[in-house]
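Lecture notes, unit on binding sites. The following record was shown on slide 14. It pairs a sequence with F0G.
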Amino acid sequence: MATSILQCISCGKSYPLEEVRFSCSCGNLLDVSHDLAALKKRYKLSRRYFDTKRREVGARPFSGVWLFKEIVLPAAPENSLVSKQEGNTRLHRNKKLSAWTGVSHLYLKHEGENPTGSFKDRGMTVAVTQAKRLHQKGVMCASTGNTSASLAAYASEADITGIVLIPKGNVAVGKISQALAYGAKTLVVDGDFDDCMRMIFEAQEKLRAYPLNSINPFRIEGQKTIVWETLQQLEWKVPDWFVFPGGNLGNTSAFGKAFHEAYELGLIDRMPRFAVIQAKGASPFYEAFKRGFKKLVPQKAETVATAIKIGNPANYTKAIRSLQWTEGIVDTVTDEEILDAKAAVDSSGIGAEPASCASVAGVKKLVAAGTISEKETVVGLLTGNILKDPQIVVDYHMKHRGRGANRPYEIKATIEGVRRFL
Ligand code: F0G
């Protein structure tokens, strides 16, 4: 009996892991479903098992995703892994940001420290490994930028063709540079991300393209390791809150599954609460949350945080499950709040791209509202690197008149110019 299968999250129908399929015959999303009891027995899985493994790896280069291979993709042979030593990102603490948000036990997990500068690499290593195992010649995605950058790099690593669909005028310059530079075939679509995503669903059906968006359940498996790595860094102490931005809701789906599986395996003894933060102009999940998840009403999304400019999230049903597991909440922050949080994160010396900073803006808002107490332990997720979107930084500091602005000065090419400034 296989220890891992593809399984519908709604009707429970299962398919072999080797089948190229991304939705159930009933139309719902698929999970990679593991027989946790069997895996636990086979590998004697425990906190100590993973801690020993990490210690034994020592100074050797290794992947923070494949450290957890036994509960990600146990069937994949070691020599089949398409990896760039992703993961192993830092968990930052910073006094200024603790003061700014009002939480002294604030930890920021920086996924911008991955090989292509975002958390996407964690899912991509697993999904591209699986694509290779299934003998796919090409892979495809819709993207607000980071997925395309990551796909491009991993497709190159795997020596398969990468095709990316990106919305015209809505992808930050660092990200489009990466897609082009790593060699992906780049299709600039005259539409928004939701149009690109719709095209991916169609391409998968009509062109038999292999999608690497987070509807691919192997992406979710890789992204689970953000949670387990954080837990290891916290010596398996479960934080009170896990706060992160929500766009297509892949992370929301992955993190719920990760905590749920950790609980089932006995690695943790309680669940944290999730707070998913959306940009106010791109908040379909928040609107659905307010109405008890009766219905998802797609929106025409608008926000400066282009990474999460998404109006019709593909992982909606999986994300609901994650909130149920974690007594989770959804909130929104305005573009101004995102930019102010970004100025705070950047000037702390850590730095992150705008969507990432929705997490930090969200923490501040939830503390001010009394939802998060100052004494609680909060993990906030920074999803992407500061250099992904340099234009927004320059615009903010050159044009913005707000508190966080750090304007440059023009001076004559003489030391007198410097002296006058001082
Ligand atoms: N933060 C960043 C930096 C992102 O790039 C994304 C998604 C998110 C947050 C939202 O994560 O979709 O799991 O809820 N970016 C995708 C892309 C959509 O195409 O790069 P999610």
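Take-home: Residues 101 and 364 are 4 Å apart (CA to CA).
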